[in-house]
Design a protein that fits this description.
It is built from ten helices and 14 strands. The chain is an alpha+beta fold and 276 residues long. It folds into two domains: 24-180, no CATH class; 186-273. The protein is globular and about 55 Å long. The two termini are 17 Å apart.
Length: 276
């Protein structure tokens, strides 16, 4: 879907947790564009189609994971500068070592980040809902901003890293409902399970929801009928135990009862905004 409307202007002087930039949009979690799996199979060319009541998602070349979603959420929440380019793409500058620290890396290794960003650059997704269809790559360029006057810190040399988000991916912010959960992001990043992070990100797109755990996992393609039955049950048990024991999900307002019914009511730090 081509949309020629101009992007909303970005204030490049805004810094951390201003709430000025959406953390994401709801369709990216509801379909889901970023899977609840731990690792991408980036070396395997594939075509995956996922359908649910919100629309259809198609992956090509590389299946994206919650780690890739962590990267984009963090950048949209904590970027240092943002510049809209002539073709409609947007270049974000950020501190890569601060990002990796928030991901729980005691000794941040920039090569890990480079690998994940290369996977984001390789991937192609198509999201089709009743309102729009977006076919897009995500990142077009990435690398250090050598013009930045960096300063040495214990997390690195202080130079800002840059990624350029494609014009087509920015169409999510032009067409899809914005969701803001910047203040909850540090807690979400502490959840080690990719499956649980995918569930959290889906649930917080709702104002109120109750859903059977198994149905929720099928809905998000965390489990599917192509998997071995024993593995599906193993995943259900694992996620059940994590939801029952997690202080973070309880803090966010997510609960699971003895019948495996998962419930959530909108958290005070989550809000929505229609695109301009």
């Amino acid at each position: 879907m081509e949309n020629n409307n101009q992007l909303e202007p970005f204030d490049i002087n805004q810094l951390y947790l201003t709430g000025a930039h959406p953390t994401s949009t709801v369709s990216q979690s509801r379909l889901p564009a970023f899977s609840g799996v731990k690792k991408s199979n980036s070396n395997k060319v594939e075509l995956i189609i996922i359908e649910n009541s919100y629309g259809t998602l198609t992956y090509e070349k590389c299946r994206l994971t919650q780690r890739h979603r962590d990267i984009l959420d963090w950048i949209f929440s904590f970027y240092r500068e943002a510049e809209q380019n002539g073709d409609g793409s947007v270049t974000y500058s950020f501190n890569p070592y601060a990002m990796l620290k928030d991901f729980g890396h005691v000794k941040p290794d920039i090569e890990n980040l480079r690998t994940w960003i290369k996977e984001l650059r390789t991937a192609s997704i198509t999201v089709e809902t009743k309102k729009f269809k977006i076919e897009t790559s995500i990142i077009t360029e990435h690398g250090y901003n050598k013009m930045n006057n960096g300063r040495t810190t214990k997390f690195g040399d202080g130079h800002l890293y840059q990624i350029t988000i494609s014009r087509r991916f920015m169409q999510f912010f032009e067409n899809d409902l914005h969701i803001f959960y910047n203040k909850l992001l540090p807690d979400i990043l502490k959840i080690k399970s990719a499956e649980v992070r995918a569930i959290v990100r889906f649930l917080i797109t709702q104002k109120k929801i109750t859903k059977k755990l198994e149905e929720l996992l099928y809905f998000l393609d965390v489990i599917n009928n192509g998997q071995d039955k024993s593995n599906r049950y193993k995943t259900i048990r694992l996620v059940r135990n994590l939801l029952q024991s997690s202080d973070i999900t309880k803090k966010i307002g997510i609960s699971i009862d003895k019948n495996d019914i998962v419930s959530y009511v909108q958290h005070e730090f989550v809000y929505f905004k229609n695109p301009a």
